[in-house]
Design brief:
By secondary structure, the protein is of the alpha/beta class. The chain folds into 4 domains: 190 residues, no CATH class; 114 residues, no CATH class; 119 residues, Sandwich (Jelly Rolls), CATH 2.60.120; 104 residues, no CATH class. The protein has 15 helices and 26 strands. The strands form 5 sheets. Strands 1-6-7-5-4-3-2 form a 7-stranded mixed beta sheet. Strands 8-10-15-12-13 form a 5-stranded mixed beta sheet. Strands 20-17-18-19-21 form a 5-stranded mixed beta sheet. It starts with a strand and ends in a 6-residue tail after the last strand. Keywords: Signal.
Length: 569
């Protein structure tokens, strides 16, 4: 949990040279007492300050215990607490500190207090609080009057006594916040988005091996919370348990897909939030961007099957069998004319609408989407067929609207799951976001109509009851002699769609081709010969030929044709 102090103070701190506020180092000794400012929101007694005593000094930390709590313990319980502190200190020195510093980078060191050790305050906190980090402590009192002038985190002392294994999770989490404060706030003058900062802190628990025993891990607790209510915004941050569930699931997915460096490199980069992830993707020459990842993640949560595509499932062994059910479920039968439903989603809030379909083979499904034109609704859908095979597709909405057609042939549609979110906002997230509505309308259409409506570049078409097959591109169609199909692994004559004469004739016939790595354009004749158009670009334009009529071919097809005489006009 990371807390921010007043914005006006933070703004001043950003522009203040850090070196001006380094105080003279004073090594503390066991038994020293010190007064600390604390956060009343998380303190058990709503205190704003408390006195604490240094109980142990490790290689990397000072461990202070709340005097008020210590005084309530018997000698035996005090001894038990001391042993728990030794256990926690060893874990921090030997495991958490070296692993996190190696992966994320260093905390402020020696920092505002000019001391290489951090301060860990063991405080009596509310029952639901495990620990917190406040950036104010990293500045001098001139910058923030409530600063403790130390690189420090606070942990719930009662959790330490009850379960030392559990408190190790919190120290791993909070220590990342201290590191992030150094790399974003101090070194670059940036304020990391809450959701991404918390995501990295949650991943630190896995990084340090504290999630290795999954059945009793923090990750499992977070996953269980997420599965109970998975439709929670990733970026809205009211600091509830649901927020930690969704960042865990998204963070594990990012690491599965791109490796842990997507988290470490974005931490040490010059940007924050979504922009930092897009910059990382760009640096790796990845075609996708954040919204594409989010769309695939929504599908992965519902489908979770990497055999369909690596991006549609988890690699983490404990997450491979997780499947998120629909937010809403509806039934759409043949006797219905139309069905209108929809979802209401906040920015980067995943939502799933399932439609169970019952339709005869000659009926297919049309889905129309309608939303506010100034929003950026991101929509994917999974078609589950009766034979068990799924197909994943993406819908690109324009001005909030879009339409897709889903063929219902021999495979027969069983159900369709629409995964949707709103991705309009990419910066400036806070604790409250407004949901926006996306309407979803389902209709049954004739199968022949859908075949014609779903034609795309590169598809094969033919007239009804005729053998000649054409490939389409743009507004043109090109006849393919039978020998051509074997030269392309993806072309199968059986996939050719029969279209009506109006659709077939709407494509102009072209016989122009060019090899992908050659500028020469050829005309292919029915006798299997190719003829180079030995003319200039100016002559081409003057002849009213269309550059869009040229089909790109592979080397095998180029060699398939016999070279004939040149065309010179």
């Amino acid at each position: 949990m990371m807390l921010r102090w007043e914005k006006i103070i933070f703004t001043l701190a950003v522009f203040a040279p850090v070196f001006l506020f380094i105080s003279v180092a004073h090594a503390a000794s066991v038994g020293d007492q010190r007064s600390f400012f604390v956060n009343p929101k998380y303190d058990k007694y709503a205190r704003t300050s408390l006195a604490a005593t240094l109980k142990y000094t490790s290689n990397h930390a000072y461990f202070y215990v709340d005097n008020n709590y210590w005084s309530t313990l018997s000698a035996g319980h005090q001894g038990f607490l001391n042993n728990a502190i030794l256990d926690l200190a060893k874990e921090f020195d030997d495991n958490i500190y070296p692993k996190e510093v190696k992966f994320w980078g260093s905390e402020p060191n020696p920092g505002v207090d000019n001391d290489p050790r951090i301060v860990i305050l063991l405080e009596e906190m509310t029952q639901t609080s495990g620990g917190y980090f406040e950036t104010a402590n990293g500045y001098s009192k001139k910058e923030a009057s409530s600063s403790n002038e130390a690189e420090m985190i606070a942990l719930n002392v009662e959790v330490l006594v009850a379960n030392v294994a559990y408190i190790k999770i919190f120290i791993a989490h909070e220590f990342q916040h201290l590191i992030s404060f150094n790399h974003k706030d101090l070194l670059r003058g940036l304020f990391e988005d809450f959701w991404l900062n918390e995501l990295r802190s949650e991943y630190s628990v896995s990084l340090t091996g504290l999630n290795d025993s999954y059945s009793s891990s923090n990750l499992k607790r977070r996953v269980d919370v997420f599965l109970a209510e998975p439709s929670d915004s990733l970026t809205e941050w009211p600091n509830k348990s649901l927020d930690y569930g969704v960042v865990n699931m998204f963070g594990q997915y990012l690491v599965d897909q791109y490796g842990p460096e997507i988290l470490s490199e974005t931490l040490q980069g010059p940007l924050v939030g979504i922009a930092s992830i897009n910059k990382f993707l760009e640096s790796k020459n990845a075609a996708e961007r954040f919204e594409d990842i989010f769309a695939d993640w929504m599908v992965a949560l519902n489908l979770n099957d990497r055999s369909v595509g690596n991006r549609y499932g988890y690699l983490h062994p404990e997450l491979r069998n997780i499947k998120v059910g629909p937010t809403t479920r509806s039934y759409f039968y043949n006797n219905y004319s139309d069905f209108i439903g929809g979802v209401s989603v906040k920015n980067w809030q995943p939502a799933w609408s399932e439609f169970d379909i019952e339709a005869p083979a000659d009926k297919s499904v049309k889905i129309a989407f309608f939303g506010e034109s100034n929003q950026n609704f991101i929509v994917s859908y999974v078609v589950y067929y009766s034979n068990g095979s799924p197909e994943v597709r993406r819908v690109r909405l324009i001005d909030g609207s879009g339409t897709v057609y889903i063929a219902n042939g021999s495979k027969k549609i069983d159900r369709i799951v629409v995964a949707a979110t709103n991705g309009r906002q990419v910066v400036g997230f806070n604790s409250i976001d407004q949901a926006r509505s996306l309407s979803i309308k389902l209709s049954f259409v004739e199968a022949k109509d859908i075949r014609e409506a779903t034609l795309k570049d590169g598809m094969l078409i033919k007239r009804p009851n005729e053998k000649e097959i054409y490939v389409i591109w743009g507004k043109y169609k090109r006849y393919l002699v039978p020998g051509i199909f074997s030269l392309y692994g993806h072309l199968n004559p059986a996939d050719a769609l029969e279209v009506g004469p109006e659709v077939f004739d709407s494509y102009q016939t072209s016989n122009y081709i060019k090899y992908v790595d050659d500028e020469k354009v050829y005309a292919v004749w029915p006798d299997g010969t190719k003829h180079w158009l030995n003319i200039t670009a100016k002559q081409w334009d003057a002849s009213s030929r269309d550059w869009g009529a040229i089909f790109t071919i592979n080397d095998l097809e180029r060699k398939y044709y016999i070279t004939g005489s040149d065309i010179t006009r």
